[in-house]
TrEMBL record:
Native organism taxonomy: Eukaryota, Fungi, Dikarya, Ascomycota, Pezizomycotina
One Pfam family hit: Ig-like_Pom152_1
Source organism per UniProt: Friedmanniomyces endolithicus
Domain of life (superkingdom): Eukaryota
Nucleoporin POM152 Ig-like domain location: 456-561, 767-851, 1164-1249
Annotated spans, Disordered: 1-28
GO molecular function terms listed in the Swiss-Prot or TrEMBL record: structural constituent of nuclear pore
Full protein name: Nucleoporin POM152
Entry's Gene Ontology BP terms: nuclear pore organization; protein import into nucleus
Record InterPro entries: Ig-like_POM152, Ig-like_POM152_1st, Ig-like_POM152_9th, Ig_POM152, Pom152, TMD_POM152
Positions of the Nucleoporin POM152 N-terminal transmembrane domain: 63-148
Length: 1267
């Protein structure tokens, strides 16, 4: 379709590109239009297919211009819709915010979706799309929030920024003041003086340090040349070891290659005087100096000697290997070997258990070593001496000991960080270098040393000393009670202890308890902390030493232990029979025990009764060497006592042989309680019973007594034939402790035996009780509806308790309480009554004064409207009286419940113009009444719906609250305005008839009452007058003639009211109109001087009524100008005579004569070097002449500057000097010998002055020369 002819009115043709050639990699070219129009090809039917680069809608369906037209139509439609929304906006923030968000989304959807259609010319980049969207968003915000758009001010600012602020000149033409004020042709020319430089060459001008080693095989020595182009150089090298010197010759080709290398590093110009740095590569250490330099003219170039350039081997340092295991308290004894040119500095790092410290050794050098590098100022020390001696620069090897006390056990690492020689050559050892040593320790230089510092072991004995010997059975062994430790915290785990022991047998111990000379020594190794050495032979054992695999330890006291073998235990017995005192029959044996051994003893014996298959084994413990045991069986019969074995403190279970005793026993009568508890509990007013077992020959008589509070009551039971009887106490009415004691028993032989057995009875002091406790001092509680409450119980007795209660006489309920102050959880209102209680063992009683608890529900909150505020109550809706817009209106809301209250209401507004979204608000009241302030800001119908109510007790419940409505109508206030606000109704004093008419417009419901205010210029108090009964919305106000005064009077609208009783009080900012009576106008110059310069402004003050007509004469031409303000000014564009001849204002149309003359003078000018830029080259010490030519009226004063010459980049030079001169003639010549650019920056003649833009001439800083 590219060849399709188009009408001239059609859109421009769509730009086409050869997409196929683009895809095939062909370059894009602009085809020239041939002089002959191409022939229109015949249309052929073809099939079109959309390619990825074509529009989304193919062009054969809708061509590109039409697609662009559709896009523009959609955009314009959106703009019309946006303008409609703007016209319907009310003055509310909610509506503006909603519309702003709406149009942000619509504009964003349109702008971001449009590029996806790929319409030609509308395929914007993402950045362009974002910028367009930002512009639309700013416009949407300004429209929807009614932000004024300063269009006129914007165009004016744009015009001033592009073309400047034009002013009216004296020839009545608009002129740009900047073209007059900043006339570059007034100051022309400058003179540039350049002092030719002197050529030089310097080796190593920055005095860098150089070194070579295995990683840096060569170094590049810098040679800086200035204002010369050398063709040959000679460099002298002095060997540091042999002091032999050699001369290195640099040919022209080598120097040329050095130039190329330097140009690759830094871009240099073509000027010879520009400094340039060349680099010469050397590989050998030595002392280098520049011996000779020849330039293109075969002349020697000045060589500036600053210091020798010394290339030395790079410094290095290693850690000499040493043992890696040390003991706490020893010295580190680590040596560093430093090699380099003294004085050297080495920095190392010490890491102790991951705590890092760094230290530095300075001034490392051999003894009696002298070097210029030791001086305080190293640069001064390297100045060229008369005799070259490089012995001080030879590398030296120095060992530096690191002797530190190893006071902390753990892992110590000494590692090298950095080494530096006397020239400042620095080698830094990185973590990679240290890791290389760990991987290849044999090949790499040792850069760090790891030392493991071990704790020293300690040992002592625990529980055995010569005074407290260790006793062991003969033939048995024992563990030596050692206690292992260390100088740290606790013993050293995982490390064997080597213990040195000294042993002397009992016969080898001296009288003083010491070892004899024949004492034996041995070593025991303990591999486990719980392991102890095994000893068996009796004697004295002493620990003489302790050590681990790495460290020798310390032996603490006690260190000696005495081992003894005591004799085995033995037993000898003797006995005698025990007889009954009454019957005289034997009742048992009394056996005496004589013992040998180590107390305490345990004697095991067995008791057998003839005719019985059972026996009893007993153990008698004897703490000394003698003991006695009484064997008194309870039942009659023949008994055999066998003594089986004996044990003492050392020997256990040693058998006894043939130790037996026999006896026929007839025991005396006895009685005891069966299964007697330690103390039996009993309830008050109840009896207690016990079972008693009787022994002996019956029948029996049993006496017992009951003891309580110091009183004894005796009881007796006779003719008892049973072996088991039950005795019962009377009812126990007093609480406390009782004792039931068996007193005596009498058998068949009438032998009476005293009894010792007794039983304890604890009687409860009171019965269990139950009662309700108090909540807040009452047994009556108000709770929230549906909320659970715990009723407190007061229980007396032993836990647990079983309580039975009822609710409002319903079915009784039982609960189990574990605590004396337990609680009953309830959730229903009513009366709760306790019925019965029982504790763990006894029934109880209910406290009648506290057996009930009453629960009541707290009432829910209520809301109502005060009847005095509701004009027409209608069920749950209330109608308030109508009010005027802006009047105060409120309604009292009454509450019932528990303050504070919170009520939520929704404010629905139906405005007379526009719409407002509903607002949800909240009232919080601390008392029973709150005031709701009605919204009267805008006219309309208001509906306040109270939909949620809460108080201190209850949250809102829709089930228990019915919404209330309060409705009110707000009427708009009337308004009034001048039809032409700000207009001045003026006339001459002779023509003032007071019949001027001021039109006004009113809004509201007529009739209107209107009040005016007239304030005369020069009077303090204004006058007021009223116009009542205005029945129309448009009215012409006639000011009475008596109200008008000579001069200006301001008429303001103060108050308006309508038939609804609404009124509006207008403030002082309301637009007003003026009534003025003026005399003839006048014109007065604002400057007293009659001489002005081109570019200045001629200003006059006007009095009268604007606009004014000013008549003036400029250089013989009569002109007329208009002035709309109280001032008149014109720009002095060119020299001439300006004369004002008259002035006329708009009030009187009378012309006042005037004669104000101003003489306009031209600006002075100056030419340096005839107005051209002149270059002058001079040698150091020479001088040249500078010519200044002036234009204007003498005398002339001018200021010129000397600045540094412009560099290669074109950057303006820095001002070096500023001078001020005076001349009575039109030309002046001065001498100059300093380099720089000389130019004039300010000129002044008798009347006018001019300075270049941006130049500040400081009179104090400038030097003034009187000619």
């Amino acid at each position: 379709m590219d060849g399709t002819p188009r009408l001239r009115s059609a859109f421009p043709s769509t730009p086409q590109s050869d997409r196929r050639s683009r895809r095939l990699g062909g370059s894009e070219r602009i085809q020239r239009v041939s002089e002959r129009l191409p022939e229109i090809p015949a249309l052929q039917a073809s099939t079109y297919s959309s390619t990825p680069g074509e529009p989304w809608v193919p062009e054969h369906v809708v061509d590109a211009p039409t697609q662009r037209l559709f896009a523009v139509v959609v955009w314009v439609g959106l703009g019309i819709w946006k303008a409609y929304d703007f016209s319907t906006i009310q003055d509310t923030e909610e509506q503006g915010l909603w519309l702003f968000m709406k149009w942000i989304m619509l504009d964003g959807f349109y702008l971001f979706a449009l590029p996806s259609f790929q319409i030609p010319w509308l395929e914007w980049s993402p950045f362009t799309t974002v910028m367009l969207f930002s512009a639309h968003a700013v416009m949407d915000g300004m429209l929807m929030f009614r932000i004024p758009i300063p269009i006129a001010a914007g165009f004016a600012a744009l015009g001033r920024s592009l073309w400047g602020a034009y002013e009216m000149a004296v020839n009545e033409k608009n002129v740009n003041p900047r073209t007059i004020a900043f006339n570059e042709s007034l100051i022309l020319g400058r003179q540039i003086i350049h002092i030719l430089p002197e050529g030089s060459a310097i080796l190593n001008p920055e005095r860098h340090a150089f070194c070579v080693d295995s990683t840096r095989s060569d170094v590049r020595l810098p040679i800086m040349i200035n204002a010369t182009n050398p063709i040959s150089m000679e460099i002298m090298r002095i060997d540091l070891e042999t002091q032999h010197n050699e001369t290195l010759h640099l040919s022209k080709s080598q120097i040329k290659a050095m130039h190329k290398d330097a140009s690759r590093l830094v871009s240099y110009g073509q000027q010879l005087h520009e400094p340039k740095t060349l680099y010469y590569t050397v590989k050998k250490p030595g002392l280098y100096l520049l011996a000779k330099v020849v330039d293109e003219s075969n002349l020697d170039v000045t060589r500036k000697h600053t210091a020798h350039t010394v290339v030395v081997p790079c410094p290095r340092a290693i850690v000499l290997p040493t043992t890696s295991d040390r003991c706490k308290g020893e010295l580190s004894n680590v040596d560093l070997e430093v090699t380099g040119t003294p004085p050297m500095r080495v920095k190392y790092r010490k890491v102790v258990n991951q705590q890092t410290q760094e230290a530095t050794f300075e001034s490392i050098q051999p003894e009696d070593f002298s070097s210029p590098l030791v001086n305080a100022d190293r640069q001064l020390a390297l100045t060229v001496p008369n005799r070259v001696d490089s012995a001080w620069a030879k590398p030296q090897k120095v060992q530096v000991p690191l002797t530190e006390g190893l006071a902390t056990a753990g892992r110590w690492v000494f590692s090298l960080v950095e080494v530096e020689d006397g020239f400042g050559n620095k080698v830094t050892y990185t973590d990679r270098d240290h890791e290389k040593q760990d991987r290849h320790s044999a090949k790499s230089a040792p850069l760090h040393q790891l030392i493991t510092v071990h704790e020293r072991p300690t040992i002592n004995l625990h529980g055995c000393t010569p005074q407290q010997p260790l006793k062991v059975a003969r033939g048995s062994s024992a563990r030596l009670p050692i206690q292992l430790g260390s100088t740290g915290r606790g013993a050293i785990a995982g490390t064997p202890y080597h213990i040195d022991l000294l042993f002397s047998p009992n016969d080898g111990i001296s009288a003083t308890g010491e070892h004899s000379r024949s004492a034996l020594s041995r070593r025991e190794t303990v591999k486990d902390l719980n392991q102890k050495p095994l000893i068996q032979e009796a004697g004295l054992y002493t620990i003489t030493g302790v050590s681990t695999n790495h460290c020798q330890g310390e032996v603490l006291e006690p260190a000696s232990c005495l081992l003894q073998n005591p004799p085995e235990p033995e037993l000898v017995i003797s006995h005698e029979e025990i007889f009954d005192k009454c019957a005289g029959s034997p009742i048992g044996l009394r056996v005496d025990l004589d013992l040998v051994g180590t107390p305490p003893f345990n004697v095991h014996y067995r008791i057998r009764q003839k005719g019985s298959s059972h026996h009893t084994d007993e153990v008698e413990k004897v703490n000394g060497l003698r003991g006695q045991v009484e064997l008194t069986p309870r039942t009659a019969g023949e008994y055999q006592y066998d003594f089986l074995e004996i044990s003492d403190a050392v020997y256990k279970n040693r058998p006894l042989k043939d130790l037996k005793l026999t006896q026929s026993v007839k025991p005396a009568a006895s009685a005891d309680f069966v299964s007697k508890p330690e103390k039996r509990l009993a309830c008050i007013d109840e009896a207690a019973s016990f079972d008693v077992r009787l022994q002996g020959e019956g029948p029996f008589s049993l006496e017992y007594e009951l003891v309580h509070n110091g009183k004894r009551v005796k009881y007796a039971l006779n003719d008892l034939t049973e072996r088991l009887v039950k005795i019962e106490t009377p009812q126990l009415h007093d609480g406390g402790d009782y004792t039931l004691a068996l007193v005596s028993i009498t058998d068949k032989m009438q032998c009476k035996e005293f009894l010792k057995d007794e039983a304890k009875i604890a009687v409860r002091h009171q019965k269990p009780k139950a009662a309700f406790g108090q909540l807040e001092g009452h047994r009556k509680l108000n709770i929230l509806e549906g909320k659970q409450v715990q009723l407190p119980l007061r229980l007396v007795g032993e836990a647990p308790w079983t309580i039975t209660y009822t609710h409002d006489g319903q079915q009784p309920q039982a609960i189990r309480a574990q605590q004396p102050n337990d609680k009953i959880t309830v959730a229903e209102a009513g009366t709760y009554q306790l019925l019965d209680v029982r504790d763990s063992s006894c029934p109880g009683q209910i406290d009648e004064s506290a057996q009930t608890f009453e629960i009541q529900w707290i009432p829910r909150p209520e809301l109502r409207i005060s009847p005095s505020d509701a004009a027409e109550p209608q069920g749950h809706s209330f109608v308030k009286a109508d009010v005027c817009e802006g009047d105060e209106a409120s309604v009292e809301v009454l509450f019932k419940g528990s303050p504070p209250y919170s009520v939520q209401y929704v404010e629905h507004v139906k405005l007379e113009h526009g719409a407002v979204a509903p607002k949800t608000k909240e009232i919080r009241a601390a008392l029973q009444v709150a005031s709701l302030r009605m919204n009267t800001a805008q006219a309309g119908a208001y509906d306040y719906k109270f939909n949620e109510l809460e108080d201190a007790n209850y949250k809102h419940s829709a089930k228990h609250f019915t919404p209330l409505h309060v409705r009110q109508r707000v009427h708009a206030r009337p308004s009034v305005a001048f039809v032409n606000p700000g207009k001045t109704y003026s006339y001459c004093s002779v023509e003032s008839d007071g019949e001027e008419v001021i039109p006004i417009t009113l809004h509201g419901t007529p009739p209107f009452d209107l009040e005016f205010e007239i304030k005369h210029h020069g009077t303090g108090k204004p006058e007021t007058f009223t116009l009542p009964g205005i029945t129309t919305h448009s009215h012409d106000v006639r000011i009475p003639h008596s109200r008008v005064h000579l001069g200006k009077s301001a008429i303001s609208l103060r108050r308006v009211s309508d038939s609804r009783g609404c009124s509006r009080l207008l403030d002082s900012t309301t637009p007003r109109v003026q009534i003025a009576v003026f005399d003839a106008p006048t014109i007065t110059p604002l400057e007293s001087s009659e001489d002005i310069c081109v570019g200045d402004r001629i200003k006059f003050a006007l009095s009268g009524v604007a606009p004014y007509t000013i008549f003036y004469d400029f250089s013989g031409q009569i002109r007329k100008a208009q002035a709309t303000g109280t001032t008149f000014q014109r720009l002095a564009e060119k020299p001439g005579t300006f004369t004002v001849t008259g002035v006329q204002d708009s009030a009187s149309q009378c012309r006042a004569s005037a004669n104000v003359v101003r003489q306009i003078h031209g600006m002075p000018s100056v030419r340096v070097s005839h107005g051209r830029e002149k270059y002058v080259d001079i040698h150091e010490g020479g001088e040249t002449e500078i010519l200044f030519e002036f234009g204007g009226v003498p005398p002339f004063e001018f200021t010129f500057t000397r600045s540094s010459n412009t560099d290669k980049g074109g950057k303006k030079g820095v001002v070096l000097d500023m001078r001020h001169l005076r001349s009575e003639e039109h030309s002046l010549r001065i001498k100059a010998s300093e380099e720089g650019t000389y130019e004039v920056v300010a000129i002044k003649d008798r009347y006018c002055s001019y300075a270049k833009p941006g130049v500040q001439v400081d009179g104090k800083a400038a030097k003034k020369l009187l000619m």
